[in-house]
Amino acid sequence: MAAIETDAEPTKVLEFGLGDGTYCLDIGVIDEIVDAGELTRIPNSPDHVEGVMDLRGRTTTIVDPKTLFAIEEDGPRERIVVFDDAEIDEGGTVGWMVDEVFQVRDVAPEDVDQATTVDDEGVNGIVKSDDRFVVWVSPDVEDVADLEAPDSAAEGEEADA
Q1: Is the pLDDT of residue 144 over 60?
Q2: 44 C-beta neighbours (distance < 10 Å), count
Q3: Contact, 106 vs 12, CB < 8 A?
Q4: Which of 27, 34, 71, 115 could form a disulfide with 66 if both were Cys (CB 3.0 to 4.6 A apart)?
Q5: Which of 142, 108, 105 is nearest to 123 (CA)?
Q6: 122/31 Cα distance (integer angstroms)
Q7: Is 22 exposed, middle or buried (0-12, 13-18, 19+ CB in 10 A)?
Q8: Residues 3, 115: Cα–Cα separation, whole Å
Q9: Nearest CA to 121 among 45, 65, 64?
Q10: Is residue 123 within 8 Å of 68, Cβ to Cβ?
Q11: What is the CA radius of gyration of the chain?
Q12: Domain boundaries in the chain?
């Protein structure tokens, strides 16, 4: 992973909670934030897929980032961060179930420490704040890009046979 240049512009990030931790995402990959609602479970889906929901006529796959990042703490799971289809190469609309959403703020490149996260997939760095650390994550964590519905994946396998 390349080092962040210190003369680069600040990045706007959305801070949110997962368990006891605070995390952030570049707002450029976010389409909207919605209240958590009814989900339809998908049989035989990967562990990180919570289900799907209808979001203004779009079937949206809801992912649990706690499973992706091995976070074991519970939380209220109140909001869904929906990613922009144009920014994320998922092949469909995807959202993350998060415990709560805190704020949007600017992060200067010099406030991001990447030394401790060089080999961590899905982690862009640690944002140093006044009295805490915020983990800057990426929405393209391993397996998130392979979120086809189980039925369509099975049909593709049958066609190949």
Answers
A1: no
A2: 9
A3: yes
A4: 71
A5: 142
A6: 19
A7: middle
A8: 9
A9: 65
A10: no
A11: 17
A12: 11-160
